[in-house]
Amino acid sequence: MPSIIKALINHHSLPHQFEFWVDQYFRPLAQDIVQRKNNAKQAYVLGIQGAQGSGKSTAAEFLKLLLEKEHNVSCAVLSIDDFYFTRNERLNLASSIHPLLETRGVPGTHDIPLAMKVMGELKDQKAHENTHIPRFNKAADDRHNPELWGDITGKVDVIIFEGWCVGLPPQDKAALSTPCNDLEKNEDTNLFWRSYVNNQLAEGYQTLFSIIDDLLVLQAPSFDVVYEWRLLQEQKLINSLQAKGSLHKGSRILGNKKVKRFISHYQRLTEHALTCLPSRARWVLYQNSQHHFTKMVTSTQ
Prior knowledge:
By secondary structure, the protein is of the alpha/beta class. 43% of the residues lie in helices and 15% in strands. It has 11 helices and 10 strands.
């Protein structure tokens, strides 16, 4: 098992101390998950929330490896990112509701009925059954065609559902009145976009999040680090596309200025999450600005 962990660390170009963090944080987490899933009649659902670039998909991958290899637990990983509306659907939202809805990410830009359908199928999937899993192409900023979707076959014991807004409650309406950045100040002067996003979060998203049994939060030190983390994330995407020979002029890769504008769409709710989600989570894994894990707090509730 240590060799598999090291191989995964090398594959993601993670720091050597990540092996220590696996022992310190992820193994105890996996053990807790196994104990808690034994009380679930259907598949146990773990939500993982964290700011952009906090390492949610990496955490999910390591937990899946530990659950399957050390505990013989079947595990499926879903990302809320894969349920984004298609580009055409978001262009329709932009023209009919608000121009800022063209940009993927905020509540209101995900296909919640599709996410509910997939999650429901997986939770009760039998040994001989199969679920088709949508995939989103971030380089093209569009959902993959169905023939490129994934498949999960057989009974699933644990579903890991990760995403930047997973488990997040809506804000109080009074909090919407003051813009949090220039994007809101200049492009949402009548509060319509942020109110629409908040209403979406209050409705279908809460139904989706109610499926989650427990929440793990990767707690960033502040929103200020998100820009640097998102730049790093974009560079990893570029490196991955270059390695596959699939980086071309049509790729919607974000430069530094575009990243800053992109994360402005997320700022309000990311700051809201940093404030309110630690008290709602089963586990909070704290990070410093260098992406290092510093401590884990487990709720006794």
